[in-house]
C-alpha cells in the first residue's frame, strides 16, 4: 500500500472508532528479536526484481543490501511469480537449507494493479469459516496464485518433510501472506508460521478470530505507520492478534524493549492508538528492523 492511497483516504480517518482493547503486553526476548530480524529479510527480498523473476535454483540476493542473513544462508528460489494476474501478485517460494525452512514471500505494492487491490475494500467470503469475510483485493491477490503455489509447496514439503513452512510479506504482501497462511493451514499445513510486517486490516471480526485461534501469527506494526490503520475500523475491519508494536524510530537499531506484544484484534495501546491517519507518518511504513521495501523500483507501472 503506497502514498497515493493514503492521500485519498486520510480525510476519512475521522470515521474510525475505538473498540475495547485487551491490556496484556510484554517486551520480547533476545531470541525472538533475532528471529524477527531474520524473517523480515525474506519480506524485503520479495521487493527485489531479481527475486520475483528469478529462475529456479537461483540464490536470493537483495540489491539494497537489506537481506544479508538470507544471503548468508544460501537460500535458493524454488518458484517465482509476478505479472500473471489481474492483481499482479508477486513473490517467490524459496528453500532455506541452513534454517530448514520453505519460505513463501509476497511483494508489497509496486504496480498500479497492486494499488487497485489495496483499495478493493468490499468484503468477500473466502470460505475459511462460518461468517468469515475478507477484504476482496487481498483475498483475490492470493486466490489468483493459490493453485500453482500450493502445488509447488506440496512437492517441496514432500521432499523436505522436516522443514517448517513460513509465509512472509510487508504491506500489501503482509495482507496476502496472512490470508495465504490461514488458507494453507486449512489445506493440511497447520503449523505454518506467518510473519506480517505493516499489514493493513483485512478481516471482519469472525475471520480475525479464526486466524488468531490458528496460532503461529506474528503481525508487526511500527510506531504511527498509517498503513495498519487501513481499512478503517468504521468499515468493520479488524486485525489478527497478536500485534508486535515496534516503538523505536526510523532507521535505528531495534532492541528487545522496543517491541511490545499486544493482544486483541483492536488494541489502543499499539499502532491503532497513535492518533489520526496522517500522510506525514508515511516514513514509519518503511522501517521494520530493516528498510523493508529498500529494493522497491521507481515509477508507477501498470505491469511490474
From TrEMBL:
Query: Which Gene Ontology molecular-function terms are recorded?
Result: hydrolase activity
Domain of life, source organism: Eukaryota
Q: Where is the signal peptide?
A: 1-18
Keyword Protease appears in the UniProt entry: no
Describe the location of the Mono-/di-acylglycerol lipase N-terminal domain by residue ranges. 6-77
Keywords per UniProt: Hydrolase, Signal
List the InterPro entries: AB_hydrolase_fold (IPR029058), AB_hydrolase_lip/est (IPR051299), Fungal_lipase-type (IPR002921), Mono/diacylglycerol_lipase_N (IPR005592)
- One of the Pfam families matching this protein, by short name: Lipase3_N
Domain spans labelled Fungal lipase-type: 103-233
Q: Which SUPFAM superfamilies match?
A: alpha/beta-Hydrolases
Protein name listed in UniProt: Mono-and diacylglycerol lipase
Amino acid at each position: 500500500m503506497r502514498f497515493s492511497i493514503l492521500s485519498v483516504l486520510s480525510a476519512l480517518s475521522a470515521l474510525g472508532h475505538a473498540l475495547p482493547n485487551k491490556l496484556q503486553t510484554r517486551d520480547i526476548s533476545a531470541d525472538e528479536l533475532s528471529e524477527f530480524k531474520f524473517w523480515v529479510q525474506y519480506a524485503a527480498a520479495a521487493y527485489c526484481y531479481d527475486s520475483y523473476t528469478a529462475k529456479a535454483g537461483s540464490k536470493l540476493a537483495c540489491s539494497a543490501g537489506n537481506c544479508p542473513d538470507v544471503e548468508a544462508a544460501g537460500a535458493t528460489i524454488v518458484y517465482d511469480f509476478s505479472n500473471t494476474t489481474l492483481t499482479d501478485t508477486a513473490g517467490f517460494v524459496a528453500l532455506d537449507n541452513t534454517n530448514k525452512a520453505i519460505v513463501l514471500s509476497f511483494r508489497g505494492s509496486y504496480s498500479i494493479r497492486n494499488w487497485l487491490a489495496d483499495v478493493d475494500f468490499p468484503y468477500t467470503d473466502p470460505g475459511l469459516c462460518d461468517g468469515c469475510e475478507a477484504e476482496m483485493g487481498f483475498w483475490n491477490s492470493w486466490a489468483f496464485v493459490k493453485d500453482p503455489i500450493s502445488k509447488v509447496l506440496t512437492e517441496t514439503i514432500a521432499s523436505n518433510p522436516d522443514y517448517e513452512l513460513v509465509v512472509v510479506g510487508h504491506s500489501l504482501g503482509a495482507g496476502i501472506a496472512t490470508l495465504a497462511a490461514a488458507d494453507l493451514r486449512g489445506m493440511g499445513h497447520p503449523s505454518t508460521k506467518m510473519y506480517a510486517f505493516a499489514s493493513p486490516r483485512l478481516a471482519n471480526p469472525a475471520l480475525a478470530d479464526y486466524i488468531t485461534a490458528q496460532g503461529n501469527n506474528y503481525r508487526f506494526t511500527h510506531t504511527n505507520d498509517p498503513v495498519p490503520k487501513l481499512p478503517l475500523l468504521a468499515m468493520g475491519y479488524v486485525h489478527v492478534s497478536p500485534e508486535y508494536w515496534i516503538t523505536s524510530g526510523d532507521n535505528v537499531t531495534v532492541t528487545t524493549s522496543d517491541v511490545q506484544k499486544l493482544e486483541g484484534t483492536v488494541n489502543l495501546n499499539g499502532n491503532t492508538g497513535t492518533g489520526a491517519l496522517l500522510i506525514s507518518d508515511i516514513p514509519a511504513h518503511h522501517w521494520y528492523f530493516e528498510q523493508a521495501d529498500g529494493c522497491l523500483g521507481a515509477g508507477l507501472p501498470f505491469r511490474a
